[in-house]
Design goal:
Elements lengths: L7 E6 L5 E3 L6 H31 L5 H55 L21 H30 L7 H7 L2 H27 L1 H20 L14 H14 L58 H19 L1 H10 L2 H7 L1 E2 L1 E2 L2 E2 L6 H27 L6 H30 L9 E4 L4 H24 L6 H30 L14 H25 L25
Parallel strand pairs: 3-6
Antiparallel strand pairs: 1-2, 4-5
Helix pairs in contact: 1-2, 1-3, 1-5, 1-6, 2-3, 2-6, 2-14, 3-14, 5-6, 5-11, 9-13, 9-14, 9-15, 11-13, 12-13, 12-15, 13-14
Length: 578
């Protein structure tokens, strides 16, 4: 017989710190208010990033490769700072305050960008067409203001992004069957919402930037972010808040330090003699991997008496469950490392692919499609694939395998494979474009080749993101310890950051090895961007093989009831296997 739940949510409090009333707090309305922040963050970040390379080359007069690196460094920093945001949320502010403060920081940064793009003194004078005069690049002051605005946006994004999904799931009680069912759809709706925001950004906002004015486009981004903060704050009295357990980084360091201090001690013959202070029902079983960390649980002589307390010094003695939680995080790292390359491929879709589009025929009648809006096909493919997966693949898979959809590891595998195909399609498209470009003068701005040839690369990489993003989010949340979910979300987001940084690194290396007029020439009609795409295709294929090995090596969690994970996307099992 189903146990009757009380009026309060056992592990959540209201804004006054009292037990949260399940009838008056949380639920889908509050989750939607939280999602509003994420929608506006994606709208603003994508609205700026996808068209920024055009602004840097066309208005700030920077070289093509330099512009691409500025964009990828900006995006990489935004996601890398998610780790800092997660640390601040876990250790000091909590998720609610972290989201509110850093969303305001982001809005201010976008506002500065809007103002600087409007003022003539904030960018160099336009190039004089038909003269021999060299275009003047942006000076140090102008670039300084640009960097200030971009990195304020990056700080804001990093601060709020690591806490939004976690605070959203806090609004549902997994012990209530009705709310548990509601939460099974949260991540899919989360993905649909942010994809919808991104689609609006790369179509409407990019059009406004190109045809009305960049200051208007950026100003709208800043305005809607301030509005989203207001909507978010209006739910303050209705949210459910969960108390943090402190920074998991401290726990990780404690286990490492204790194991190093006891590295010369011999392991006991009986594992049950290792220190454990967790109740029986919430323990994590001892695993056979990373034995060196187990020494942190060896009880040395006088360990309890020396500190005059019934609890040992956690920097000298750690429980088996604490050690196993650290092992769980370590087991995530191979999967983490092999998903970085996808985001390197993603970076090309908002940099070099936009530059490709800028040289191609983009007219439909009298309407000229903005180059940055071609990424709308990228976003559209995500929404199409999510719909097909939800309405077609999931029911068929459940009927065939008896499971509600692919596991998280299987989703990631599908995404990596589709991305490899997308990079190959990008290389073939560029070969075609260059074959046309060689028949025209270097000053030709628009080549007689349709921009719709870029659709396959956008569609395949976009479909890859639909599988990888949700697969990663599901994997890192369900396979991490209960008290480390914010950190694991930040860890997932660092794959995006490192993907952008790897892109910048590869661009710099290729630029240095092949020369100024090599693969990545300032004018892409004179370069061999197709060779760069083939290089990424080869790296992606090698990475796909490495991922399959890591997925087979991965061992799912062996936990007790304490690790009843937040419900995964579409109800995926904790015991993901490839």
């Amino acid at each position: 017989m189903e146990e009757k739940l009380g009026w309060s949510v056992s592990d959540a409090v209201d804004y006054k710190g009292f037990p949260a009333d399940r009838s008056k707090t949380g639920g889908w309305v509050r989750a939607a208010q939280i999602l509003a922040i994420e929608i506006c963050e994606r709208l603003s970040t994508m609205g700026i990033a996808v068209n920024l390379v055009v602004y840097l080359t066309g208005t700030m007069h920077l070289p093509s490769a330099t512009s691409a690196n500025i964009v990828t460094d900006f995006m990489g920093t935004s996601f890398l700072l998610c780790l800092l945001g997660g640390f601040i949320a876990d250790s000091f502010l909590g998720r609610y305050k972290t989201i509110a403060i850093f969303a305001l920081v982001q809005a201010v940064g976008i506002g500065i960008l809007a103002v600087s793009s409007k003022l003539p003194q904030m960018h160099p004078p336009p190039c004089k067409i038909g003269t021999s005069e060299i275009c003047r690049k942006a000076n140090g002051f102008q670039m300084g203001i640009l960097y200030l605005s971009l990195y304020l946006i990056a700080v804001g994004t990093g601060g709020l992004k690591s806490s939004v999904s976690g605070f959203g799931t806090d609004q549902f009680d997994v012990k209530d069957e009705k709310e548990k069912t509601q939460m099974t759809y949260f991540f899919n709706r989360f993905m649909v919402c942010i994809s919808g925001g991104a689609l609006f950004a790369v179509t409407v906002l990019v059009y406004i930037q190109d045809e009305v004015g960049r200051s208007w486009g950026y100003g709208i981004c800043s305005g809607v972010t301030f509005l989203a903060v207001f909507v978010f704050l209006s739910g303050t009295k209705k949210y459910r808040y969960k108390k943090g357990s402190g920074s998991p980084l401290v726990q990780i360091f404690q286990v490492v330090v204790a194991s190093v201090k006891k590295r010369k001690l011999n392991m006991p013959a009986n594992i049950s003699s290792l220190y454990e202070d967790f109740p029986e029902g919430s323990r994590i079983h001892h695993s056979d991997q990373f034995h060196c960390l187990d020494k942190a649980a060896i009880i040395a002589e006088g360990e309890f008496e020396n500190n005059g307390s019934s609890s040992p010094n956690p920097w000298k003695l750690c429980s088996v469950t604490r050690i196993e939680e650290v092992k769980m995080m370590i087991r995530l790292l191979p999967i983490w490392a092999t998903t970085i390359i996808f985001w390197t491929a993603y970076a090309q879709m908002i940099t070099f692919s936009v530059e490709q589009a800028n040289t191609m025929e983009r007219s439909i009648g009298k309407f000229l499609i903005p180059a940055g809006s071609l990424t709308g096909f990228f976003i559209g493919s995500i929404l199409v694939v999510l719909a097909i997966y939800d309405r077609l693949i999931m029911p068929l898979w459940k009927r065939w395998k008896g499971k509600p959809g692919f596991t998280s590891l299987q989703r990631i595998a599908v995404g990596l494979f589709l991305t490899t195909m997308g990079l190959g399609a990008a290389a073939l498209c560029e070969e075609k474009r260059l074959s046309v470009a060689k028949n025209f003068d270097i000053t030709t701005k628009t080549l007689p080749i349709t921009v719709f040839l870029l659709i396959p690369q956008f569609f395949l990489v976009g479909a890859g993101e639909a599988f990888i993003y949700i697969g990663q989010l599901d994997f890192f949340i369900t396979q991490s310890p209960k008290g480390m979910k914010t950190m694991s979300t930040g860890l997932f987001l660092t794959t995006i950051a490192l993907g952008f940084f790897v892109s910048s690194f590869l661009v710099s290396i290729v630029k240095k090895v092949t020369g100024t007029q090599g693969w990545l020439a300032n004018n892409i009609n004179q370069g061999r961007l197709d060779f760069f795409y083939w290089l990424l295709t080869a790296l992606s294929l090698i990475n796909f093989g490495a991922y399959l090995l890591c997925a087979m090596w991965f061992k799912p969690n062996n936990t007790e009831s304490d690790l009843e994970m937040d419900t995964a996307v579409n109800g995926s099992s904790v015991e993901d296997k490839c």
